[in-house]
Every structure is written in C-alpha cells, then in structure tokens.
Specification:
Distance between the termini: 33 Å
Low-confidence stretches: none
Oligomer: single chain
Number of helices: 5
Radius of gyration: 24 Å
Number of domains: 2
Order of helices and strands: HHHHEEEEEH
Mean pLDDT: 75
Structural class: alpha+beta
Largest sheet: 5 strands, antiparallel
Length: 205
C-alpha cells in the first residue's frame, strides 16, 4: 500500500508539473501585460458600473491578446533578415554580461535540443552494465563524439529512479552499451515507476 501511494504521488507530480509550469509561465506573461492592458481597457470601455464589474476580466482578455500578439510579432521580426541581424546584436550584448550569459546559453541550448524535431534531446535508449557487471540499467543517448583515435563514444544521461530529472552524464564507448528497441517516453515511464511499468519480456541477453 505504501509503495503504491508513493508510486501514484510520483506519477501525479511528474504529470502535473509540465502543465503547472506552462500555466505559471502563461500567467506570468499575462501579469506583465495586465498593467498596460488596464490602461487600454479604460480607453476602450467608458467609465460605468458595467466597466467596474467587467474591468478585471477585460484586462486579462486584453492581456492574453497582447501576449499572443507580442509573441507572434517577435517571431515574425526575428524571422526577417533585419530581425535576425538585430537579434544577433542583442545576443552579442547578452554574451558580454557575466552570469546572465551563462544562464541564457543554458536555457537556449535546452530549448533548442527539445524543439529540434530532426535531432531529439534523447536520440535513443540503450542499456549498460551499471553499477557493476551483470546489473543492467537504462540510459538515454544525448549525443555522440569521437576521440583523437577515432573511437566512437555515446554521451549518456543516466537518470535516477523515480526522479528522472536528476542523474549522471557519462561518456562511454559505443561498444560498451546495448542498443534496444524502446522509445525515450517508454524509458521515462519505466524509470518513474521504479520498474513497475516494465514490459514482461526484457531485452537483456
């Protein structure tokens, strides 16, 4: 009973977290724009009893419209030739600011790796013998490289269970891992559940 309780708590948390984070971000964007939205609302709606009753809602609606309009306009401008030049200049300025530069680069690289449909953040799922020979664990491939001798290495993220947001980053020869037919989504489900959602037949030789 206790294990099931913990399992459902973890499943619930990691299901709610992305939704909550998205709602929080949208609310923050709306809050930033509610100030000017209230001024615009007062201009668009004359002062009256009806306005006083609907003004908070009108402000949020206008704030939402402003948010969508701002994001759309920013995307349009950045996609243009002059917009790309301007955005490049802004990034150069950010690059000169300590700490902010590191934070910006980290966030940008994470977003790019997740949003790039041709190169997923997790390219494939593999198994390796860890922490000792004879014990197998799941790992996610995040990249590949070669050493000066041409030997191929996988960049692996080895998530912890049941919290896959923490883990270890490993460089390991490609010959030392076993490639398996499993999606990253399936692997994450197995890790979060502590193995409870593992298929009945594993892929260990």
């Amino acid at each position: 009973m206790n294990n099931k309780f913990k399992y459902y708590i973890f499943i619930g948390f990691f299901s709610i977290f992305p939704i909550g984070a998205t709602i929080w971000l949208l609310k923050w964007l709306l809050t930033v724009l509610v100030g000017p939205a209230q001024s615009i609302t007062k201009i668009l709606l004359p002062s009256s009893t009806l306005f006083n009753a609907t003004q908070p809602y009108a402000s949020w609606v206008i704030g939402f419209i402003l948010t969508v309009s701002f994001v759309f306009t920013f995307g349009f401008l950045v996609s243009s030739f002059f917009g790309r030049i301007l955005f490049s200049k802004i990034e150069q300025i950010i690059a000169q600011i300590p700490i902010v530069n590191t934070l910006y680069k980290t966030i940008k690289s994470v977003i790019e790796s997740i949003s790039n449909s041709q190169n997923d953040a997790f390219q494939k799922v593999v198994m390796l013998e860890y922490p000792r020979k004879g014990i197998w664990t799941l790992a996610l491939v995040t990249g590949e490289s070669k050493n000066k001798d041409g030997k191929k290495f996988y960049h692996l993220f080895l998530p912890t269970s049941p919290n896959p947001t923490s883990g270890y980053m490993l460089y390991i020869p490609t010959s030392d891992v076993k490639e398996i037919d499993m999606s990253s989504e399936e692997a994450i489900k197995i890790i979060i559940s502590g193995g409870a959602l593992s298929p009945k037949e594993n892929q260990i030789d």
